[in-house]
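ligand=guanosine-5'-diphosphate
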Amino acid sequence: MDVPGEAGRRRTFAVISHPDAGKSTLTEALAVHARVISEAGAVHGKAGRRGVTSDWMEMERARGISITSAALQFAYGDTVINLLDTPGHADFSEDTYRVLSAVDSAVMLLDAAKGLEPQTLKLFDVCRYRGIPVITFINKWDRPGRDALALCDELTDRIGLTAMPVTWPIGQAGQLRGALDLAEGNVIRYQSAAGGGGAPDLRLDATQAEAEFGDDWLRAREEADLLLSAGGEFDLARFTAATATPVLFGAAVRNFGVRRLLDLLVDIAPGPAPRLDTGHHPRALDAPFSAFVFKVQTGMDPAHRDQIAFARVCSGEFERGMVVTNASTRRPFATKYAQQVFGQQRSTVDTAYPGDVVGLVNATALRVGDTLYAGKPPVRFPGLPSFAPAHFAVARPADLGRAKQFRKGVEQLGAEGVVQVLRSDRRGDAAPVLAAVGPMQFEVAAHRMEHEFTSPIRLEQLPYRAARRLVDPVQRGLVDSGARSEVLTRLDGTDLALFAEEMDLRLLIRRFPELELETLVAEGG
Ligand code: GDP
């Protein structure tokens, strides 16, 4: 099989957005366009909108949210699209960030009325850290919203990305009439009827557009020209280098702009590239099979208490049933049960290529960050970074008689990256501090401690909100001297200085200018 050819056909990306920007709607629209999911409204389950949500955990069911993140795969012409799910609601957690270690590009989805929002910014930070190229889709243009030029300026001013318009709206937000397609030099007409996924875009040439849209058309041209002449001309190299972002305007719920987005992904989004191993050597795409685990999900099926490890293929051809080696244990791992998982839908995967995601069932031996490979010699990819935690809680066994199970469980959850585990001499081993990016991680930890490790826990929230890495352990005393700060050490040896508020951090630095602290977006690896 032509592995580099198969890899070249793949586009593996995630949509990053703030809740309610329209991620589920866009995901559905993309899939509908590619005619995979015949009925829209079936991708994400929310209250009153039950779809293919996974409902593997009681707490998940109770809340009607999905904490399962996996990949949706569909064909679009000759291209194979792998759309990785970034859970984005109350379930925001470290897993959300980790998904971005498995993609080659991202679509940043903005609500036209809101622009950049906090969760989008947090996720974008990770994209920047990893150098992931970002395409921007400004959604809900069928509704009143902000000015198109102002939204583009915001990208430059707040996140330093030059906006390179690929389409430009005709008619302000709420009065959408069409969009200039700057690459094709014509106009996509807006049809206000909902639905119609998969139908071809209706195109007009300049003369037709001027006749039909008059002043709106002239204004759109002027605005687009303004941006183009100010450095917004499309430049593939700047997109790939993640210094500029192509911008599209659309309305996912109306299927407007969706096809253009798919075409853009096919045309410009990077396909899988050789991944660097721990020795910084690129693993050629046609080397024997290799993959890394970016997410482990336990208990998706309550009847079986199974564990699924999601691995992104980095090189070679994956064939279900092949026996591979787990680089961290050097033990063989049989891949008899390989699946594609998206929400509740599972299907067996028989073959996969670089860029694809396989869900390995019964993968109790696999951990987040593990490398799998076939053949010899061994290969190992860098482990996944951990991210700046924002929530902290002291864990104690609810039943003191189960201290042993408690210790084992906490250690295991820390090793798996379910939560980060911190300790200090002052608090002692009996009271480890759990740290998380999102509070949902605590619930998962508590649930597993009770059901899997038979040691229910009590969690006491700590009033810390900000964390920095303490560069020099000798300076620990300076941080510990503050009433609203302390240093805790993570299992991997990193010293984290925690502060109740950013203000406490600034005060301490003013008092001790020699204090060396580093911001944590993501570190380690
Ligand atoms: P998510 O939280 O990002 O997954 O957002 P959803 O896809 O659930 O969308 C949130 C709300 O915005 C829903 O009520 C959608 O119907 C609505 N929505 C999504 N896209 C559009 C759009 O293009 N135009 C309008 N008017 N509403 C939209």
